[in-house]
Design brief:
- The protein is α+β, with helices and mostly antiparallel strands.
- The protein is built from 11 helices and 12 strands.
- Strand 11 and strand 12 form a beta hairpin.
- The radius of gyration is 24 Å and the shape is globular.
- Mean pLDDT is 75; it is low at 196-232 and 317-371.
Length: 371
């Protein structure tokens, strides 16, 4: 089946494109740094789309699960042990005999695992020739729903680990005459001070994750949330068209977080790009993502006024092997209003903005084109 966006519940190969990620910043230093990066191809499970895909969008936001060929690295601080993985059939090797994930079509690699606490959000670039999943390795809906059920016992072990560590810490905590911990009393006092200060300060600040700690659990496991005010019902006096536009169903608005999400190319032909010996560790993918995020962060510090990424920005599809652009999506010139870009999303957004004038004045469609 050929579709304009990749269908979920399939294994795929992805490769990040740092150059296209930093090009909208128009920063020669960032571009040079991105060109120095050498990204690899990674095996992932395409779990689910995180927004409404439309044919006019240059990329689609997905949740993916990077796949490994080894047990998970131990994380003593979080209570994660190497056996907190699920093998993927035909791999049946697990330290505690855990049943493998079954696929509807044969999975070509015999040595793969799904790690606990290992999810990533990516932007999958749209292809001109569409996505053909005729050779894709698929997972049934039932298997997908229960995919991470075996991790329930692992999370119980993690919770028990933290409970034991907390109990041990409380035994050695100095206490006040009333029996309350000294440290807790100080935290309560600090929290009261913070609450008083918050009434006079604005806590809505831009943040960037700290430097890479090579821990997949530090990845973005959930899509960026939309401020509650943008989803609230419009008041009786508010314009209904403005309320619809605020929901941004058509991707016409800017997205302050999108530029930090890996932009990737995706293929369903697994064995054309990887073999059991060349599948990289998910840790390398997180290092690549962190490197690009740092480049973008530094570029923003040099030029904070550069506008945020929009669905109208250029996102040319690049052949991963040749490096040549196959096609591009229209992009407005610097200083040009986003609504004048000739992409379908921008035209539709302009039409919605012009609709109230058309109703009151008996206007024509030309107003939308001129908006």
């Amino acid at each position: 089946m050929q579709l304009f966006c990749p269908p979920a519940r399939r294994f795929a190969v992805i490769q990040m494109d740092p150059v296209r990620m930093v090009q909208p910043l128009d920063d020669p230093i960032a571009l040079a740094a991105a060109q120095e990066l050498r990204t690899k191809k990674y095996l992932v499970y395409l779990r689910q789309p995180l927004e409404l895909p439309t044919p006019s969008k240059p990329w689609f936001r997905y949740e993916v699960i990077p796949i490994a060929t080894t047990l998970r690295p131990e994380d003593q601080e979080k209570g994660i042990t190497p056996d907190m993985v699920i093998p993927i059939s035909s791999n049946a090797d697990h330290p505690r005999g855990r049943a493998p994930i079954q696929t509807e079509t044969p999975f070509p690699f015999p040595n793969c695992f799904h790690w606990i606490d290992n999810h990533l959000v990516v932007r999958v670039r749209r292809k001109e020739e569409r996505y053909d999943d005729v050779r894709a390795v698929t997972v049934s809906l039932k298997q997908d729903i229960t995919l991470e059920r075996p991790f329930a016992e692992d999370y119980a072990r993690i919770n028990a680990f933290h409970a034991e560590r907390l109990a041990a810490a409380e035994e050695h905590t100095p206490r006040l005459p009333d029996g309350s911990p000294v440290a807790q009393s100080k935290r309560d006092h600090d929290d009261d001070d913070a609450d008083r200060r918050s009434a006079y300060t604005n806590s809505d600040v831009d943040t960037l994750p700290d430097g890479s700690n090579d821990d997949p659990s530090a990845s973005e496991s959930m899509p960026p949330t939309t401020p509650q005010s943008s989803l609230a019902p419009a008041s009786a006096s508010a314009d209904s068209v403005d309320a619809v536009l605020k929901m941004d169903f058509f991707g016409a608005h800017t997205d302050d977080t999108a530029e930090l999400i890996p932009l990737v190319d995706l293929w369903f032909e697994l064995t054309d790009h990887l073999n059991p010996e060349t599948i990289p560790s998910p840790l390398n993918l997180y290092r690549e993502r962190e490197a690009v995020m740092r480049i973008i962060h530094d570029a923003r510090e040099r030029a904070p006024s550069v506008r945020s990424l929009s669905m109208d920005d250029d996102c040319s599809y690049t052949d991963g092997d040749s490096g040549k652009a196959a096609y591009s999506v229209p992009v407005p010139k610097r200083g040009q209003p986003l609504s004048t870009a000739r992409s379908p999303a921008a035209l539709l957004s302009a039409w919605w903005r012009a609709l109230p004038r058309m109703r009151t004045r008996g206007g024509s469609g030309q107003e939308a084109r001129d908006a």
